[in-house]
């Protein structure tokens, strides 16, 4: 195996490793989900314990509150509040009755004990005894006087139903009588049983954690085990009603789940070391790691083995292609093996395709050459049957006809595309019911049709049908004009050349006489003229007269009459028709030469009439060219005559102005009348030629003459004005000032 950067080995390795990642990622996912599941289960267990604790504790606290109210409202307890020392005999009886009445409330097992403290007599009454406060304290705690002092201060305090920590006991205290706020004659003290706080076997559920109850003063009221002070979390950290948070307690992380009491401001908490969670996951973690290692080692080994085994046939094929490519290793260096083999196979297929295409073209050319020789009647040195077998040609009958298709105008479509379409469609149509061979010959598309055995006249109808469908297809899909020439039916291979030349004659006839569409050899009308055309002298003279005056309309009518006499009635052959057209061109050139130097050789060279005429292929084209030449000549003659007439008119105008400027009646109308033209035409012609108004130029001419008179003769202004054609001296003065910028008088002073 060769390990190159672009080798497919790396692609395979990446693919296999990607597949190998699936179980690995699955194991990691299972481990993460298991971790989350165990954490959720522990938290759910803690929440259940907290909910049970909350429910039981809130019920216990409410019961303690109800008990304190019942004791406070007891008549015997109310009577005790009226006793004062020293006690009388009947007051001892009151103490006895109160002692007996307290026994009624001892039926519940939710608290350890309770008593009533009477401040006036410093007496404590329990369901079991009645004695002084100090004696009861010593019986309960056995402590000294200092602790008793703190304890008795609690007993003398005022409480509205508060839970207080007395030593290790959690008690509920309510001052009596109820309703006297701020004053206390005694207190009812109920000792809560802390063993009732917790769920049975809570240690098993707490996973070595601890359940704790704290109040708003951060005082631990109860816990499942002794707690160090202060706690790692304060009351203010437990802001919401319930939740879970993590805190640092020394060198370990604690997870604390908590819930708020519904009866007091207490918080019930379960504190659990975080490693408890991970201890639960340790086994899953080990199993996951072992599974991942197995996947990596076993999967990696199998990946290597499979890659090596799968690469062996690829390497063998690669070596084979390299041998065929003469040791070219470009593909293995620059591309991977698959690309190299794909490139090698593609190149081989292209070579085979190109070779097959060359053979097909060579065979097609040879076959077309053979059919061309049949069409043109050329002899072959090799027997005909051998040549037909060589080119895989087998005629189905001895009946043949030739169809020649001429595309007259390709418009904007590629000629090669049109010819390709014509050849394919023609061959397909011919082979639907017959046998057809299509090729290009002499700028035409020739189809040799070999008919099935048909009735005598059926071949013509079917051949016309093929040609008509071909014509319709080209007009509909390509919009190009097509001319189709058909031959007679010939009944031997030797008649193929006759059929071809017949079709050529039909095509030539269509070209000469401008016949479009489909035409058969039998439809031709042979020309009746044998060697002459009709162009009499009077027609020629009439045509020359029209050209001399530039009358194209009349000249065109004479040409059309000559065409009708010779091309429609006499049906001249193409060569004789060209002679007629050359004769007509000669008439035009003689007329131009006789127009007294109006035209030179440059005009005839630019017009180029003979080359344009002789370059036409059909009578229709020659007629169009002849008329275009005639129009050019008539337009040129007309323009020159118009220009000469304009020059004559301008000269006449100048002569009249120079001779009659002193005539006060000189005007555009008088000038036009003398020339014999309309005044408007004279004015417009003068404006077009000079760019100035005729009246302005008359005025300027008169002023120039006036200036000359003032220089040469001593005359007054009235005489000068009348001398140059102004009857009114004021008009003369205004015109003079307009053109000279000064009055005539000033001008006269200036020249003196």
From TrEMBL:
Keywords attached to this entry: DNA-binding, Membrane, Transcription, Transcription regulation, Transmembrane, Transmembrane helix
Family matches, as SMART domains: HTH_ARAC (SM00342)
Domain of life: Bacteria
UniProt cross-references to Gene3D superfamilies, sorted A to Z: Homeodomain-like (1.10.10.60)
GO MF: DNA-binding transcription factor activity; sequence-specific DNA binding
UniProt entry tagged with the keyword Cell membrane: no
Transmembrane segments: 12-32, 287-307
InterPro entries: CdaR_GGDEF, Homeodomain-like_sf, HTH_AraC, HTH_AraC-typ_CS
PROSITE patterns on file: HTH_ARAC_FAMILY_1 (PS00041), HTH_ARAC_FAMILY_2 (PS01124)
Keyword flag Cytoplasm: no
Residues covered by the HTH araC/xylS-type domain: 651-750
Full protein name: HTH-type transcriptional regulator YtdP
Lineage: Bacteria, Bacillati, Bacillota, Bacilli, Bacillales
């Amino acid at each position: 195996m060769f390990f190159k950067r672009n080798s497919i080995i790396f692609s395979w390795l990446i693919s296999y490793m990607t597949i190998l990642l699936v179980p690995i990622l699955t194991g990691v996912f299972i481990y993460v989900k298991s971790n989350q599941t165990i954490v959720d289960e522990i938290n759910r267990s803690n929440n259940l314990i907290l909910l049970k604790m909350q429910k039981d504790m809130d019920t216990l606290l409410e019961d303690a509150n109800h008990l304190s109210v019942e004791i406070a409202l007891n008549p015997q307890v109310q009577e005790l509040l009226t006793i004062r020392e020293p006690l009388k005999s009947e007051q001892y009886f009151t103490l006895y009755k109160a002692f007996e009445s307290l026994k009624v409330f001892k039926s519940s097992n939710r608290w350890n004990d309770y008593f009533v403290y009477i401040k006036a007599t410093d007496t404590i009454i329990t369901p079991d005894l009645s004695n002084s406060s100090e004696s009861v304290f010593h019986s309960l705690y056995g402590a000294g006087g200092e602790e008793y002092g703190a304890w008795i201060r609690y007993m003398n305090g005022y409480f509205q139903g508060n839970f207080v920590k007395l030593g290790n006991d959690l008690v509920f205290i309510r001052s009596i009588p109820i309703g006297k706020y701020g004053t206390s004659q005694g207190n009812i003290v109920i000792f809560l049983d802390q063993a009732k706080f917790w769920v049975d076997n809570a240690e098993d559920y707490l996973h070595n954690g601890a359940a704790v109850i704290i109040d708003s003063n951060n005082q631990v009221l109860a816990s499942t085990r002794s707690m160090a002070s202060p706690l790692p979390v304060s009351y203010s950290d437990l802001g919401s009603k319930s939740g879970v948070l993590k805190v640092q307690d020394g060198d370990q992380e604690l997870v604390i789940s908590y819930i708020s009491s519904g009866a007091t401001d207490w918080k019930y908490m379960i504190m659990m070391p975080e490693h408890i969670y991970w201890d639960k996951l340790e086994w899953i973690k080990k199993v996951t790691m072992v599974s991942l290692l197995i996947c990596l080692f076993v999967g990696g080994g199998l990946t290597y083995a499979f890659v090596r085994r799968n690469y062996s046939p690829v390497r063998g094929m690669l070596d084979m292609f390299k041998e065929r490519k003469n040791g070219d290793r470009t593909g293995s260096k620059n591309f991977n093996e698959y690309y190299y083999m794909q490139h090698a196979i593609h190149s081989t297929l292209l070579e085979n395709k190109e070779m097959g295409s060359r053979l097909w073209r060579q065979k097609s050319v040879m076959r077309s050459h053979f059919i061309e020789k049949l069409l043109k009647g050329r002899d072959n040195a090799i027997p005909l049957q051998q040549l037909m077998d060589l080119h895989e040609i087998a005629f189905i009958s001895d009946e043949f006809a030739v169809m020649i298709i001429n595309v007259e105008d390709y418009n904007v479509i590629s000629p090669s595309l049109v010819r390709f379409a014509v050849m394919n469609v023609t061959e397909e149509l011919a082979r639907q019911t017959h046998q057809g061979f299509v090729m290009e010959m002499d700028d035409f598309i020739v189809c040799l049709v070999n008919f099935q055995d048909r009735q005598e006249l059926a071949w013509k109808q079917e051949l016309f049908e093929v040609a008509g469908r071909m014509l319709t297809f080209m007009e509909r899909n390509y919009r190009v004009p097509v001319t189709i020439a058909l031959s007679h039916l010939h009944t031997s291979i030797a008649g193929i050349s006759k059929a071809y030349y017949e079709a050529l004659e039909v095509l030539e006839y269509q070209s000469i006489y401008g016949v479009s569409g489909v035409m058969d050899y039998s439809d031709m009308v042979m020309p009746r003229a044998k060697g002459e055309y009709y162009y009499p002298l009077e027609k020629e003279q009439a045509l020359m007269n029209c050209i001399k005056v530039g009358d194209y309309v009349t000249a065109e009518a004479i040409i059309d009459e000559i065409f009708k006499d010779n091309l429609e009635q006499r049906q001249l052959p193409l060569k004789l028709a060209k002679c007629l057209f050359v004769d007509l061109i000669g008439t035009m050139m003689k007329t131009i030469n006789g127009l007294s130097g109006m035209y030179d050789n440059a005009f005839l060279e630019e017009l180029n009439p003979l080359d344009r005429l002789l370059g036409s292929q059909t009578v229709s084209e020659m007629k169009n060219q002849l008329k275009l030449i005639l129009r050019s000549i008539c337009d040129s003659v007309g323009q020159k005559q118009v220009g000469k007439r304009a020059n004559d008119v301008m000269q006449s105008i100048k002569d009249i102005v120079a001779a009659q400027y002193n005539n006060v009646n000189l005007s555009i109308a008088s000038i036009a009348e003398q020339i014999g033209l309309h005044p408007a035409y004279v004015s417009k012609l003068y404006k077009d030629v000079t760019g100035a108004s005729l009246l302005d130029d008359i005025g300027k001419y008169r002023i120039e003459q006036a200036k000359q008179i003032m220089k040469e003769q001593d005359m007054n202004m009235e005489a000068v004005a009348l001398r140059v054609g102004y009857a009114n001296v004021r008009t003369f003065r205004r015109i003079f000032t307009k053109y000279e910028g000064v009055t005539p008088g000033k001008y006269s002073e200036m020249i003196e």
